[in-house]
Amino acid sequence: MTDLETPKSWAMLHAKCPRCRRGNMFEGGMYRFGSNRININCPHCHMTFEIEPGYFYAAMYVSYALNIMEVGFFCTLTYLLTHNGDSPWLYVSTIITGCLLIAPVNFRYSRVFLLYWLSPKVHYHRELDRPEPKNTQEKAVNSFINLKTIK
Ligand SMILES: [Zn+2]
């Protein structure tokens, strides 16, 4: 996989950096308590994920859109499983429980979608999409290439 570029869909699914598709955007696992935080910089190419102050406020709109789709999904699923058209509380409790359980997914993928699809300044750099260097000579070459890319 050294000469091939990392597929965009794979990088998005694994929440990798949109510029190099190698570094993790988030530290820790999705459902670990207290650690679902986005890294300040990409650990591989050092891109700053928050492009400007307050940039991730826009992720709330993406998260809202995701929640609307999930509400539709949970309503449909509840109707298909129970065929209940009488009790609104069944739907309300299903929607609230489902949305709370899936909130970490929304948090993570709203930021991924924002950076990959809705940020025109962020582009993929194929030259940064390569494995971590093994020795000091490779590290020196990689940091030189990273500096050229950043400028
Ligand atoms: Zn990166």
How would you describe the overall organization of this protein?
It is a single chain. The chain is mainly α. It has one domain. The protein is 50% helix and 3% strand. The protein contains 5 helices and 2 strands; from the N terminus they run αββαααα. The chain has helices at 8-13, 58-82, 88-101, 103-117, 136-150, and strands at residues 26-27, 37-38. It has a two-stranded antiparallel ribbon with strand order 1-2. Helix 2 (58-82) crosses helix 3 and helix 2 (58-82) packs across helix 4. The longest helix is centred in the middle third of the chain and has 25 residues, at 58-82. The chain is elongated, with a radius of gyration of 20 Å. The model has no long low-confidence stretch (mean pLDDT 88). Zinc ion (ZN) binds next to loops. Zinc ion (ZN) is lined by residues 17, 19-20, 22-23, 42, 44-45, 47.
Layout of SSEs?
Elements (H helix, E strand, L loop, with lengths): L7 H6 L12 E2 L9 E2 L19 H25 L5 H14 L1 H15 L18 H15 L1
Antiparallel strand pairs: 1-2
Bound molecules: zinc ion.
Give the gist of this structure.
The protein has 151 residues and is mainly α. The chain is built from 5 helices and 2 strands; from the N terminus they run αββαααα. The protein has one domain (8-132).
